[in-house]
Amino acid sequence: MSENPIQDTDEKSLKPLAIEGKLPLKAVGIENLREANPQYLPPHRYLHPWFARRPTPASRLAILASVLPKDTDSDNLLRWMQIGPNKDISGSLSDYVERKKATETERDGNLESHYGYPRPFTKSPTSSERSEIHDILREHWDGDLPTVLDPTAGGGVIPYESLRYGFPTCANELNPVPSLMLKVMLEYAPSVGDIESLVMHWGKKVDERASRDIQRYFPSESDSQTPDNYVSTYHIQCNSCGADIPLVPKWWIRTRSDGIRVVVRPEILDDGRIEYDVIVDPTEQDLEGFSPDDGPVSRGGDVECLQCGVVTEDDEVQKRFVENEFEYTVYCVRYIKGDGSHGFRSPNQKDVEAIEKARQQIESDFELATFLTTEIPDGQETTRTNRHGMTQWRDLFSPRQLVCNYQYIESIQYYSEEILAEYDQQTAEGILTLLTLSISKLIDRNSRLTPWDTSKGYPSQMFKSQDLGFKRIFVDTNISIGGVDFLSYLEKIYDSYEELVNYLPEESDPAKVTVDDAASLTYEDESIEAVVVDPPYYSSIIYSELSDVFYVWMREALKDTFPDIFSQELTDKNNEAVANPNRFKSVAGDETSKRELARDFYEQKMSDIFSELYRVLEPGGVMTVMFTHKETDAWDTLTMSLIKSGFIVTSTHPITSEMPQRAGMRETASADSTLLLTGRKPHGDRNPKNAVPTLWSDVKSDTRTAAKNAARELINSGLSLTKTDVIISAFGPTLRVFADAYPVVDDEDNEVPPRRALEQAREAVTQVLVDEYLEAEGIGELDDITEWYVLCWLVHESQTFSYDEGRQLGLGIGVDVDEIKRSTKTWRKSRGDMKLRGHADRVQNVEEKEENRSSRIPVNPDDLSFGLALDKVHAAMHIYDVKGESACCDWLRERNFDSDSTFKATLQALLQVLPHDHEDWELARDLAVGRTRDVLDLDFSPNVFAENSEQTQQTGIDDY
């Protein structure tokens, strides 16, 4: 449970809400993770790819707790959220859910039978439960049901759950791509309902017309061998011998051991061309002298000629693409057999000719020749595509992909006028939208950015990693057959739509859906009671740049049906509430970086949005922000925007919301937990600019105290929070202290931003974590750099983490991470993140002569003294690893490390913070046992060697 009482003594007139009291956070967090099972997700997840969606339980909690009164019983709240069994149980529902989580591994049946109730998203509140909730709300909100608004609705989870509870609901979204999903979920589902026969009738007509035109691009060997996937790559020409070089990293097509394995073996012909031999279930004899793991492309992107061995460097390869000096080629064909199973074969001449047919079709058809010629903007997410010569949106598709996708769009256009004439507007729009979602969703599986999944022998997804990364191996998919096809996708989308229809109350009113800038809404003043918002994630996801690849296709199909939504050539970049440094690279100067300009824009934009929400909220209204981010800059800008808008921060709650290290979000700025931060609109005017400033010296200690108290409470709560999440979750109480004191100024009357409070919070919570999880004596005596290195492992529990997090951790103990990067080699940049280096990257090889050693490696193991305690331990690891235990004992004695407290403290700390599968942990363990232990006179607690010691590992969700 968690409680956050209203503290502002001037605002006692606000009616307290459930979100400002105790909440069953642990039970809801468990349900969030139950929902994260990728085998069975909520139906809205299958409508169309989108880049961020909140779990149903977290969304329900945010909605219900934001409108129900504070005295709402937690068991009632969970029951209304459909959490818990419909039977008498001993104890509270929270205790029941936690017991079930703790005994998951002991169950006999499936998870649902173990818990005794289905996952909440599959159940809507009953009519009696809705009536019960509505009666309470009418009494609390002076006779009316509160209207719930989500101003940046995205994938639509929040407003859809609001509809399931029968609340008046409004949803706004700037981006047209998720706006189509919103119309399906919030307008057509409640008002049009079941239209399966109509959708499938028109879907078959669209498919029949389009499929006739694309079959010639997928020639069959026989009636029972129709290709459904061409595994494709590119050829460039070797500068040395003129031979074709395929851009293939590995020659595997399918690697699974539970079925057939498939490999391609290339054969170089006399004229330098390459033929491909597809081998199914290869024997040792088939692979004699050939390794499928060794393709021409190296990990760094360089390419080796199969004929002469000359290497073409990656920069030159990119130049070839920019200059259009490459050829598409197929090196494996997957086909459908008569019984519906799949086979694999080598490509033949007809397959090669089919590519040329598609190219000729494009050149001879005026519509195709000018189709999707809109330029791809130079953006943060499009850098890699531009580097490979993809400058127009049509360039993301091979000739065959472009023709096939186009035929379906053209077919939808062909029937759209007839559909619009035959049905009422809502029904016609619903039919056309569902048809368009099917082909748009297929784009994810049929582009040059769609990789081939070698584990399954199947086309993967363009946005599996949520970027527009160039792929050397891609898939030409026959979207008229085979499971990854128009009708199959349409059936799946309709199944999801039908589920959405069935989850809503009978005679449910549709939501009001608007497609506008959230900073300029069309709602009247003081017309909304509750706002629940999951705002854009600062700089984590640049939604508009990613979604353009879908938008350009949707626009072709629906620009006449929704002229207002699809009026622009591309999605709106100017009004998007994200911190996108790329937008400002042309105006950034020496004094103001593009990152700073992006941050300033985001802060102003969020301030404008919050001010707009303040306008539309009635006095006493509530705004709950669901924020999932790690970077201090993101919290700083969000907080300033909230405060400047006039809101009073009344509560904060951390809640587990995501599966740890979920696909697509690993090592990113997005956290695994969500913070519910609640602000209230006071009665009467409240202008924070007119408030009397508070001195930072008076606020500083309060922020540290609030952060420490929050951290200790969170550690003892049993919530599923990583150590990073503990720090982030402590930001909430810290910001409440800061907001109550705002404006805050220093001794020279300069305004102090919230990030100063967050820096104090991070430093204070880190000390709490050290006290809680590290046993090492003398840790406080270590040099700053060694201490920072140990704390990075302790806090992040990973070798790679956000650069900003590492930088902020360094600031807290006086380490400038950029200043030490080159001299100490303790870390390196990895795709914008920070990656810690182990001993192997920092210590010179003692077996090489000194004159042959690289001067860039900072630690010389022959030295008798070292500048950093970390250098001592890393050097000892190297000596033990290279020369063995006896030589290491002599080396340690020679340097008197038996009496060096900093060596022992560092070794003990690393044993506790390093993951046990890390090479350095194994060497640290070896140093701490045997003869080296005796030489060093060590007396470590057994806890430092424990695999899952409470001293070294935070309790996780699986430990409940």
TrEMBL record:
Tell me the domain of life.
Archaea
The DUF1156 domain extends over 23-71
Pfam families, sorted: DUF1156 (PF06634)
The alphabetical list of record keywords is: Plasmid
Among InterPro entries, the record links this protein to: DUF1156 (IPR009537), SAM-dependent_MTases_sf (IPR029063)
User: Is Lipid biosynthesis included in the keywords of this UniProt record?
Assistant: no
Stretches the record annotates as Disordered: 103-129
Question: Could you tell me which Gene3D superfamilies the record lists for this protein?
Answer: Vaccinia Virus protein VP39
Does the keyword section mention Methyltransferase? no
- Please report the name of this protein according to its UniProt entry: DUF1156 domain-containing protein
